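Tokens for chain A. Residues wanted.
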């Protein structure tokens, strides 16, 4: 059985090591209730390639505002280092019918 392709993907690189950021916790949320509340859709971890496949299933993506929150503090803490940023958020608005947010 072939894996189902997700309409949303991410790829995280650890620029300090020059390698994929394996095991980084991230959370995908969508803005709901007329822009009043973030709803968590998925919490996951990056794989050995620094990717997080299957964030959304086909058909789950709808027009709106989304954010990916990356737990950079937890990632660096596991490696015995301090983090300047406790988290990093990337927000995107819109949906272009199978294209990019």
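Reply:
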């Amino acid at each position: 059985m072939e894996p189902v392709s997700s309409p949303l993907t991410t790829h995280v690189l650890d620029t300090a090591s020059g390698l994929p950021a394996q095991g980084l916790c991230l959370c995908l949320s969508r803005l709901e209730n007329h822009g009043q509340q973030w709803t968590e859709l998925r919490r996951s971890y990056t794989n050995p390639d620094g990717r997080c496949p299957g964030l959304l299933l086909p058909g789950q993506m709808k027009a709106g505002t989304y954010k990916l929150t990356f737990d950079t503090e937890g990632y660096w803490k596991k490696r015995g280092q301090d983090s300047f940023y406790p988290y990093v958020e990337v927000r995107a608005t819109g949906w272009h019918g199978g294209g990019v947010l």
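The beta strands are 13-14, 19-20, 25-32, 37-45, 65-70, 88-93. Residues 12 and 41 are 19 Å apart (CA to CA).
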